[in-house]
Amino acid sequence: MHSRNHTSENETSSTYFILMGLFDQSEYAVFLYTLTFVFFLMALTGNTLLILLIHREPRLHTPMYFFISQLSLIDLMYICATVPKMLLDQVTGDNTISHLGCGVQMFSYLTLAGAEVFLLSAMAYDRYAAICRPLHYPLLMNQRICHLFMSGCWFLGMFDGLLLTPMTMRLPFCQFRRIMNFFCEAPALLKLSCSDISLYEMFMYLCCVLMLLIPTMVISSSYALILCLIHSINSAEGCRKAFATCSSHIVVVLLFFGVSIYTYMLPRSYHTGEQDMTVSAFYTILTPVLNPLIYSFQNKDVTGALRNLIRSRMRLRKVLNVKT
């Protein structure tokens, strides 16, 4: 562990915050930070590989895989917005972050989280159109509509970031500026404010309700209609295929929405700073690692594309070896 004696000198600074390291209180900190670095590399590798496979393989040029590639892009940006800073703090021993840096980190996180919420809704609607409206699917989910959906996801995500970040960063903060988290997250910053934040908390709660309510309604409706169709299918093979194509997405939705509701909609009295940090670590570090595995595991199209990529690389290597 690096010495952090200079941290106390900055505690009264009006231009810096002090980030609490994720494993600073643990005697296994070095091992846990090393493991985090391994997870970071896994997330980078898994999501980058998934994006490249979808871009390279013609069979994967479908709306479903287009949205999966966008989810992988969001996961890449997600983990890069938080983990490198945390790991660098551990190496250098400097766990401060400027007021501007904190605002940029918060805006990035809120934008990506907002975009992912609506992207998961678009993915649910895509599965509904593919299973319940197969004859109209090429019209309902053509390339133009997919790009419009994605543009809308990014726009709404940025709107969320631009709405909440300035409001949070303008709050008056006490001299003790130690954030009980390893990155600048709105709920952790609210605990540092010296003013009455009840009005702001109500606004943030309403904002989160709207941001989560509409996507939840879209996702619930889509899967309710899919389940009704599955129930009416007499073919066991048809049921299996319909369920298989939705199961991965349902797992990702439950993980993401469960964590979002816990963090932003439960009152502060229901969770401690340590619990918040653990949950934050789950969806900023583990989720970007899990998502590529969830979408590629038992997915014949993705595993087939990966085998084709490996074979083509092996053939290229053989040709180069023969020439040399």
Notable characteristics:
10 helices; three-stranded mixed β-sheet; 324 residues; mainly alpha
Write a concise synopsis of the structure shown.
This protein is mainly α and 324 residues long.
Characterization of this structure:
The chain has 10 helices and 3 strands. The chain is an all-alpha fold.
Which helices and strands, and how do they pair?
Blueprint lengths: L15 E4 L9 H28 L6 H30 L3 E3 H34 L4 H4 L2 H27 L8 E2 L6 H5 L7 H35 L3 H29 L8 H24 L3 H24 L1
Parallel strand pairs: 1-3
Antiparallel strand pairs: 1-2
Helix pairs in contact: 1-2, 1-9, 1-10, 2-3, 2-9, 3-5, 3-7, 3-8, 5-7, 7-8, 8-9
Anisotropy-based shape = globular
Bin the strand percentage: under 5%
Q: What oligomeric state do these chains adopt?
A: single chain
| DSSP helix fraction | over 70%
- Count of β-strands: 3
| Main sheet strand line-up | 2-1-3
